[in-house]
Specification:
With about 70 residues, the chain is of the alpha/beta class. It contains four helices and three strands. The protein starts with a strand and ends with a strand.
């Protein structure tokens, strides 16, 4: 399985631009590989009410991912 953990707007905003770009590029590559290999994809969000949803730049690659919200 592919598990993408806590790539949320408020967290990615704190990253340097080059690091953020690399993360989103890597997520795209991994998501495409998972799709081609028919590997299930999941994503988690740590307290989305406070930290916001998964960043759109990551979410555009993870359309079919099953989402889990965490509070601890």
């Amino acid at each position: 399985m592919l598990l993408v953990v806590d790539v949320q707007e408020r967290l990615t905003a704190a990253m340097a631009e080059d690091a953020r770009s690399l993360v989103f590029r890597s997520i795209g590559i991994l998501a495409r590989a998972a799709e081609l290999l028919e590997i299930p994809t999941f994503l988690t969000e740590q307290y989305p009410k406070g930290l916001g949803p998964t960043d759109q730049s990551a979410l555009c690659h993870l359309g079919g991912a099953r989402r889990f919200e965490k509070t601890s």
